[in-house]
Amino acid sequence: MAPMNQWIKIKAPATVANMVCGFDILGFAVNSPYDEMEMRMVPYVENGPKIIIINIDQYNLPTDPEKNVAGAALNALLLEYEEQFSNTTIAFEVKINKLIKPGSGVGSSAASSAGAVVGANYLLGKPFTNDDLVRFAMNGEKVASGVKHADNIAPCIFGGVTLVRSIFPLEIIALPSPELHVTIVHPQIEVKTSDARSILKHQVLLKDAIKQWGNIAGLVAGLMKKDYDLIGRSLEDVIIEPVRSILIPGFDALKIACKKAGALGGGISGSGPSIFMLSKEKETALAVEAEMIKLYTGLGLAHHTYVTTINEKGVEVIN
Predict the structure, then answer these.
(1) I need a surface site. Which of 94, 107, 149, 198 has the fewest CB within 10 A?
(2) What average pLDDT does this structure show over 275-285?
(3) Residue from 15, 162, 183, 193 carrying the catalytic annotation
(4) Is the pTM of this model over 0.85?
(5) What is the 3-state secondary structure (H, E, C) of the chain?
(6) What architecture is domain 8-175+311-318?
(7) Is 193 part of the annotated catalytic residue set?
């Protein structure tokens, strides 16, 4: 266990969830952007807070632990820690600098939730497994979206590409990370995860389900075999994307332009509004970025772009 009042620094990466066809089950971490956090364990003061959250960014997110994703995740961890490992009540102080804009669709809430529990686990001497940490961090996702989903949390904690085979009971499978370049555009609009979920259909046609299953299996096989062309062919969503894409200006035109520029494929990152594309070469990824900038400049819509790679480490504690 780390000494009381010893600060640690935490780097929590952005993540791309769904990977087009793998709604709520597939995701990967990227090297840019990422959140920065600082954290320490402090003695608990009777009748005082167990979790103190300090925002050092401009987003003015709630500091009430029950309304903050990092606080909700830490509450879950502390409850289990005190039940299983210690009769002593402890407290955490967390400083959060969000460099991943909330509502961007690249795992902003997951980064805060995952960063907090990985940091706490480190300070406590690592009593919990990565699966445990995902389980705790999912409580943060429930605060953000109303649903305990792990497709952002899992790659944020494990790094690389992950498959959430099951939520109850939780089973996460680490998949081989492809040596691909990732281009992301974030149009400066907000799409709330809760809103993006509310418009989804509750029933799907059997023929669509069969096609989707084939694409998910093809994508996983492509990752296992490092067959990038198979990965590209499998990046197709016939259930979720057709509905959610109406929330993102220029989506269909952008996808066509990026593929013409050489991208293997891509789609909506999480619930949007960010869009990601995978490319074999960095030069292609940069050409894809140019198409993204061209389209959104033409639409008069402010945007940010990132050209990055898959992060195989996940959340890092930096002393």
Answers:
(1) 198
(2) 98
(3) 193
(4) yes
(5) CCCCCCCEEEEEEEEEECCCCCCCCEEEEEEEEEEEEEEEEEECCCCCCCEEEEECCCCCCCCCCCCCHHHHHHHHHHHHHHHHCCCCCEEEEEEEECCCCCCCCCCHHHHHHHHHHHHHHHHCCCCCCHHHHHHHHHHHHHHHHCCCCCCCHHHHHHCCEEEEEECCCCEEEEECCCCCEEEEEEECCCCCHHHHHHCCCCCCCHHHHHHHHHHHHHHHHHHHHCCHHHHHHHCCCCCCHHHHHHHCCCHHHHHHHHHHCCCCEEEECCCCCCEEEEECCHHHHHHHHHHHHHHHHHCCCCEEEEEEEECCCCCEEEC
(6) 2-Layer Sandwich (3.30)
(7) yes
